[in-house]
């Protein structure tokens, strides 16, 4: 009888990346170092969740977290232990639900209370700060909004919507060239973000480059339609996961339609 060898300790770099929340680099590093395949898959999933949150795809993020929750407890080694510390699926899913309804709040204190859980989670902190910044901007508190958007960027330098909102403040102040520069940086970070293309189009039109602006706005419309389809698919998937009976009902409906088509093609009996 042979005993399984203990899991080798994770290299310090990989643990540092996990602690810093640099999920893309962590997944790539784990893959390059030949880490356990379940750990690599988990890191890639968390990176995808981070992307979903940045894009405000809360439904897709919840779907991924539901799958991640099934394997989180069994992830091996030091990385698995760190992931259980930094990524808590149940708390994150609750935070995403709070974020989803945050636009209904019109009072900064009420919003802060609503988002307390999201602010406490590393993966949702930047998104929660961004939501607070949006409310401050809507209330006309430009300085406070800029401060909170900047804090969101510090919490997650890749949060391109917070950067977009900083550009929006510049645009509202009439600093169109500065806003254009910010939106171009946004598009470099997130080439398929329709809001970045749309706002870029507006900023260049304000500077008199109408044709260029129209091209950017049309690109934004195409990307927005694509996103709408993807979001609808994610919502349907979540509904089926919550209510499996819908999946079976769909199968029954399809089967009934196929039977009707078959009978129509067969024609009357002889």
From TrEMBL:
UniProt keyword Transmembrane present: yes
Residue stretches in coiled coil: none
Bilayer-spanning residue ranges: 248-265
Keyword Membrane: yes
Positions of TPR repeats: 160-193
Key words, A-Z: Membrane, TPR repeat, Transmembrane, Transmembrane helix
SUPFAM superfamilies, sorted: TPR-like (SSF48452)
UniProt cross-references to SMART domains, sorted A to Z: TPR
Gene3D superfamilies linked: Tetratricopeptide repeat domain (1.25.40.10)
The protein's name in its UniProt record: Tetratricopeptide repeat protein
Organism name: Deinococcus radiotolerans
